[in-house]
Amino acid sequence: MLLRHTNKDIKERKALNVNPAKTCQPIGAMYASLGIHGCLPHSHGSQGCCAYHRSALTRHYREPVMAATSSFTEGSSVFGGQANLIQAIDNIFTTYDPDIIAVHTTCLSETIGDDVNQITIKAVKDGKVPKGKYVIHASTPSYVGSHVTGFSNMTKAMVMHFAKSTGKPNGKYNIIPGYVEPSDMTEIKRIVEKLGIKPILFPDTSNVLNGPQTGRYSMFPEGGVTIDELKSSGDSMGTIALGSLASADAARSLDSKWRVPCQVQDLPIGLAATDRFVNALRIAAGVSVPDEITRERGQLLDIITDMHQYFYGKKVALSGDPDHLISLTEFLVSIDMAPVHIVTGTSGKDFEKRIQDITSHLPYKVNVKAGGDMFTLHQWIKNEPVDLLIANTYGKYIARDDDIPFIRYGFPILDRIGHSYFPSVCYRGGIRLLEKILDALMDRLDRDAPEEKFELVM
Amino acid sequence: MKNISVLKEREKHIFQKGKDNFDISCEKKSLAGAVSQRACVFCGSRVVLYPIADALHIIHGPIGCASYTWDIRGALSSGPELHRMSFSTDLSETDVIFGGEMKLEKALLELIDKYSPKAAFVYGTCIVGLIGDDVESVCRKVEKITKIPVLPVHSEGFKGTKKDGYKAACDVLFNLINRNGIQKKVPQSINILGEFNIGGETWMIKEYYKKMGINVVSVMSGDGRVKDVTMASSACLNVVQCSGSVTHLAKKMEEEYGIPFIRVSYFGIEDTSDALYRVASFFKENSEILKRTEELVRKEVKAIVPGLSQIKKDLTGKKAAIYVGGAFKAFSLIKALKHLGMEVILAGSQTGTTEDYKILRGMCSKGTIILDDANPLELAKYIMEKDADLFIGGVKERPIAYKLGIGFCDHNHERKIPLAGFVGMQNFAIEVHQTVTSPIWDLVPRRLKKAKQ
Questions:
Q1: Do β-strands B369-372 and B14-16 pair in parallel, antiparallel, or remain unpaired?
Q2: Is there a domain that residue B310 lies in?
Q3: What is the pLDDT of residues A144-176, one digit of tens each?
Q4: Touching check for A216 and chain B: CB below 8 Å?
Q5: Could you report the predicted ipTM of this complex, rounded to two decimals?
Q6: Which residue from A256, A416, B17, B442 has the highest number of Cβ atoms inside 10 Å of its Cβ?
Q7: Any chain A CB within 8 A of the CB of B303?
């Protein structure tokens, strides 16, 4: 009996989260910080937070994840963490020599009221920050938002701290890829460049969290957006932010502060969302879409048509982060699948509204919840079974309990590889998603087929 | 890799046998700004209590602490699996301002009603310590209504190190035991302490004791049950493994109930045999026990020795680096590795004491690096310098080993096979052999370079 604790009887819960579909802000901030070249993320709080975030990211990426901590004691919790942070900044630059420290707060340091901005100013004044080195910071208390908003806050901090306008356009476009995998960031960059646009992509965790085996251990891997690029982002021709929750804040601050016109797009997951992204790039670059991209689109469409008989009416349950789920739901609906249960752990009314807009024309009821948990999702599934579950690794309990074909997608994935290397965004990513969906559905058909109906050709 | 400088304050935490003659500095808070591999109080409490499978574990705080500890420890249960669910009050900003007591109470009542656990543990996180929730009184109130033990775990992250978390967990366990009063003694009985049933190790060890004719009253906390814990005062002896985590409980039980304790390790042939013999000799008035123990040890050792000798041939002269949580584990590992013909070139721990490091120094050969609360750069530096073939550590160390291109063995939560006892030694030897002699290391740059030279 594995985790068979879920029953059908759904009760409204306000005081309790059972089997979370989110985690806290600081880990998102840490992930974003790792997307700056030469950056050491710093957790301003207890030692445990930093250890947990590093472990979680290490398990997901199977890569060393470096971050420092202010190592709060009872004393610092009473008298404030200023001394710890200043000492930390000093120690970090002396020992690890990063180009930049990205400080994020925790519930502890926020609640005692540490003013990190003032502390970093003091650290600079006291000469603890060597010349040409930087300290940036974002406020990310764990009792607000989720890992996605933590990512957003740190991404915004990057432009707020570095972006300047020299008045001389740099001829580039800022691309904010959202809280996606390193592989997705590479793919987004590839598409942007194919359309003839020079991107400043941030944060960029490719080659940081999916680095090669080199036989060397390097604290600061090759990848990441450079500080010079971030500085230059105020001179860009425009910003395209992908995923409103994770990326819009940074794009809008660039717009309001340095008049860099921004547009917020959905994450380019699936055909239609990728079309909109490519279209935005085409217009921005003033070019027509190159044949290579058109061909990739055609290939995705080809698979959709070739295999559409397997998609028809298949009920899907989804759990993940808002930006992903919006595009994914749209994609599934467009290929005639039926996303009937959709849960994100992150709160926010916009999400539910977007999903309702996408699904309102459908002849069946769609359960959607922002600020929900995996337990609720499981209960929904108990009441109305599905043919496919798409969720992070924790979905495997539900999949096992109710014997549902399962695709791992989102954060964290603790028991499979692939997400770091193969994108699920843009047209090629769409092909990968379809491959995964079809593998799961068709493996099930094979498993359950009686011998006389066990088919060679499908 | 470019040379790294070791921070001045850190120098005292690093000791090289035969070279340095000062004492290692340890049992200190990590330096602010350190990329330490250590965790917090909450983490310590959570790992000790977590394996109690029929209790409700609820985390009072913002969501993170619950998310990161949701079923990450492979502590197996033979029955209920309530411990593998994640329950959190998921405190939000308004709760932080107005307090989370109401939320906690509601959550507890709802969960206890739904799952009928045998006890409830309420873990306090950093924030609870700050906003001043009276968790104690909520627990008392809920206990009155539900008639099951509802116990606060004082595990606010900033109130010390992981060790303080162990202590907080011990206090909870003691509370559970103590509220049941002193129980009638069970003859020839023990409690197994500090054993968490990772990969099913508890089951194996219990089987040994059963064969010896020893009654196991309770295990704290591997495959644990609340009822067994409450009966713990009926045991004649506490057998404590993983000294760091539950010695505090053993000491308390000695003071309160006069139950003596011994510290043992079930890792490696020598230590396992030693553990079983010491328990047998404690019950020496029954000579049958010692006889059965001798028979057991003989049989078990005989079964694995041929396999080990075979493996030793391949491993002799290979070099190992060890970085573990408690230093006690390092002692056993060093012995076991020596048994396999391997040389330990680096030994370190997150939380070792002065006493521990003294013992460690005695066990190591000349030139061995001994580290307290190390950071990844230090670990990587010495592994490269000493040209290790194997790294033994936990989740954060694994990718470092692989990046450097050397074998790795998890001796922490993420081990999937039992490494305790005699069979465990065999499993360990096989795992070490597989990783150290894997042909994949011939593909990575480090060995390629060597082959060219």
A1: antiparallel
A2: no
A3: 999 999 999 999 999 999 999 999 999 999 999
A4: yes
A5: 0.94
A6: B17
A7: no
